[in-house]
Amino acid sequence: MSTDARSSKTDRATETGATRRQLLALAAVGGAGAVAVAGGATATAADRRTDPNRSARTDVARITVLGTTDLHGNVYNWDYFKNAPYSDSAGNNIGIAKAATIIKTVRSVVGAGTCVTLDAGDTIQGTPLAYYFAKIDPITQGATHPMAAAMNKVGYDAAALGNHEYNYGLDTLRAFEKQLNFPLLSANSVDWHTRAPVFEPWVIKTVQITGRKPIRVGILGLVTPGVAIWDKANVEGKVRFPGIVEQARKFVPKLRQAGADVVIVSCHSGADTSSSYGDALPWPENASTLLAEQVQGIDAILVGHAHKEIPQRFVTNTKTGRQVLLSEPLYWGMRVTEMSIDLELRRGAWKVTGSSAMLYNANEVDEDPAVAKAVARSHAKVLTYVNSVVGTSTAAMSAATSRYEDTAAIDFINYVQADAVKAALAGTPQADLPVLSIAAPFNKAAAIPAGEVTVRDVAGLYIYDNTLLGITLTGAQVKDYLEQSATYFKQVSGTGPFTPDQLTNAVTPTAPGGTPDYNYDIMAGLDADLTYAIDVAKAPGSRITDLAYAGEPIDPAAQFVIAINNYRQSGGGNFPHVKTAPVVYNRQIEIRQLLIDWVTANGTIDPASFSSLDWKLVSDGADITVTD
């Protein structure tokens, strides 16, 4: 069982003005003499007087664990797709440069020697900055990865691998690893044949507090097993990903046997027990809570992967009854976790006596100058790249309404994907099969302007690093696929007007367990139109109506080639048939780059040449109205 709690831990600022001002700078003031911390808690200046590290007693101590996660290639508070400072509806700031300011300030207050700094993965993918140094000026050819430069300046002690670390293949990941001044940890990334970890599973850091026996802090890294599905092309035959709980049961005792007084797990796996891939693997995607409940010997878990904000949560271990501390600092450097682990020396050995956590908010701090300077040249290169003009468009295209109506923006993605697969199949047994394509509304903010089009305009349509495949499905399987996609919508009656939240099961602040937009697909034809309606008045599984190809009801036995991304083909979203469908095309070409290359080669985007209204939402057959 677990309980959420807003941290009651107090600010450790001393009564001296300079140090107190440092900590006040971490977040907005929440009242006289108080610091506002993420999650709504406030902290006062009183606790420093009871800091065990300042006590005359040498048998008590406190270590501080600072944590980030899911940085996703964000160094600065910058949106490369908008060419402007990052902005969202919650007023968040992003980037490791801001997180670094928090980390360094907390160290200066509590004492750098008492701190352990960790990251929970998903570091080298997610922005044009990350993409550029994987594909355009690759680190495998000698370039320094900006995230390596930034993290080395921060001074991390260890980082867990995330699933997105595998997106660019093992060579890129190994090149990144070599550039770091700290280890990448993953106890459940194991050799395909020997089952031995292919990265360091754990490390022990010794914390030396003046006048006290050294404290040995064991750090274990774990990643969601979903890598085996999502990056199958990069890892199959090379790396396996067994369950998080299962591997922790092997390695936590090893840490204790090696002399760890404290065990911290940096776990790239969310705190619920859901899996986007259903039962495609025997282990859940999100297992941090199960880890805390089922594995003895863990004191705290830095959680990643889910992009959630968990200031402080305690989970009871079912074997020992002890409370295990969990904290997740949102994503992209928006928050920094601070965990406090209190210890007492008993019979010559340190024992954990208590723990607490809170999150600091990056909104009110400046970027750390050392980190900002270390990446400045890389940032400038990427700005030049993403703002270079590659073509023109005869009309503006927006993805804002793509979830609930046919748009030219999604039609463009589907057209380019299908066209690429069709061309590649020339001369093969599948050359004469009709080609369909699927695409999801990844980015509601994506837009192609009329007139000049830049790299960042095109890249904004496809914000993930997915690659393109071609598979074959029957007409009956196409319908099954669309039925799964249609579960994105709620069952509602009437014709509206509806808001998107009333109509969809999408992830929202009030429905964090909903269906992500990237697990809702829109399908289109290349040489002829694929048309259909989604009847939201009907129960899931019977919503697709009027399904036709080239104006005729689709033949359940007919064969189609489907242009599909690697995430979906590998089982992401748990769509039917695709994992076992024959693969007829797989050249490992990234879809985002395919779109950029298409615009560069053709020069002009003309929506009239590829866009048509092929699908719609209905209720008992009548068109519905959606207002956003």
UniProtKB/TrEMBL annotation:
CDD domains: MPP_CpdB_N. The keyword Zinc does not apply. SUPFAM superfamilies: 5'-nucleotidase (syn. UDP-sugar hydrolase), C-terminal domain, Metallo-dependent phosphatases. Residues 64-308 form the Calcineurin-like phosphoesterase domain. Gene3D superfamilies: 3.60.21.10, 5'-Nucleotidase, C-terminal domain (3.90.780.10). GO terms for biological process: nucleotide catabolic process. It comes from Terracoccus luteus. It comes from the Bacteria. This is 2',3'-cyclic-nucleotide 2'-phosphodiesterase/3'-nucleotidase. Keywords: Hydrolase, Metal-binding, Nucleotide-binding, Signal. PANTHER family: 2',3'-CYCLIC-NUCLEOTIDE 2'-PHOSPHODIESTERASE_3'-NUCLEOTIDASE, 5'-NUCLEOTIDASE-RELATED. GO terms for molecular function: hydrolase activity; metal ion binding; nucleotide binding. The keyword Transcription does not apply. One of its GO terms (cellular component) is outer membrane-bounded periplasmic space. Residues 389-579 form the 5'-Nucleotidase C-terminal domain. InterPro entries: 5'-Nucleotdase_C (IPR008334), 5'-Nucleotdase_C_sf (IPR036907), 5_nucleotidase/apyrase (IPR006179), Calcineurin-like_PHP (IPR004843), CpdB_N (IPR041827), Metallo-depent_PP-like (IPR029052), TAT_signal (IPR006311). Belongs to the 5'-nucleotidase family.
